[in-house]
């Protein structure tokens, strides 16, 4: 599967090739929408198409995603709208969890079910042998990405070189596997795994390398991403439900804001700092603000700054000062914890 784990934020452009999800709907003026939609991406849809569909549903001015998910994969695709795109790097750096099925007995040139069979084996490993192997794939390991991947080689994507019949040689690189479990073995040909990975891990490469070590060969036949920290399965919304919300909103029977999570959701791993409205005004103008008073928090490094419950800026604490790095302008439709509201 192509690009099953490496992450890239990409801006969605208008995609005229796909009709509006709401039949008969006139082209609406784009509006300011700020927050996260965690799409449960269906199999068969590209991540770029998913972003363009969500962007049209919200008539949002800008959108991007926090990690490519291959068309043959399903699951967690966090989509940032408006000012939330400024927080995409934080989601990109988070841990991802995958549930995937490996088919033993065949190695394919893409390391997934899309590719051509390049080698076969009649040997099948038992569950004990598979479990005994998993510690070798846990922790920081060296991994060679698949030939059919988005890795750039001399300015060209590896999958473009591979498709054109070129030789693809990719150097191994360190990746982190925090947890790697055998979930079930439904039959001798298939094993289901769950893995919690760091940025840049290729699940397809795990299947390929396990198959080679076990002398049975293998490739991925099914892949579902269940989380992109801090977003989890409970945050996901299926495309069908989003489209239904759109129909109800068009009929003034509901609001698409019901699907919006707050912009700051992606910032769970960094400290929050509350300041006064006066200091917030200074940060909005790009001015540093001094942390003062006996009760001033002792902080250093990145923080996100709030005033009166509203996200103001991403900042760095340096020598007792709050130095703004990215300032947020949250006028329009915004997500807030537990509810959504119109900002002014």
**Radius of gyration, whole Å:** 23 Å
Please give the largest β-sheet: 11 strands, mixed
Rounded mean pLDDT is 84
Q: Kindly report the name of the CATH homologous superfamily of the largest domain.
A: Pseudouridine synthase
Helix/strand/pairing category: alpha+beta
Beta content comes to 25-35%
* Overall spatial form: globular
Which CATH class of the largest domain? Alpha Beta
The CATH level-2 architecture of the largest domain is identified as 2-Layer Sandwich
In the predicted model, the low-confidence regions spanning at least 5 consecutive residues are 1-25, 337-344
The tally of strands reads: 20
Terminal CA distance reads 44 Å
What is the domain tally? Answer: 3
Helix fraction, binned, reads 10-25%
| Order of helix and strand elements from N to C terminus | EHEEHEEEHEEEHEEHEEHEHEEEEEE
Give the count of helical stretches.
7
Remind me, CATH topology of the largest domain? Pseudouridine synthase
What does this structure look like?
- This protein has 344 residues and is of the alpha+beta class.
- It folds into three domains: 33-94 and 231-263, Pseudouridine synthase; 96-228, Pseudouridine synthase (2-Layer Sandwich); 270-343, Archaeosine Trna-guanine Transglycosylase, Chain: A, domain 4 (Roll).
- The chain is built from seven helices and 20 strands.
- The strands form four sheets. Strands 1, 2, 3, 4, 7, 10, 11, 12, 13, 19 and 20 form an eleven-stranded mixed sheet that branches. A five-stranded mixed sheet has the order 14-16-17-18-15, with helices on one face. Strands 5-6 form a two-stranded antiparallel ribbon.
- The radius of gyration is 23 Å and the shape is globular.
- It starts with 32 loop residues before the first strand and ends with a strand.
- The relative contact order is 0.17.
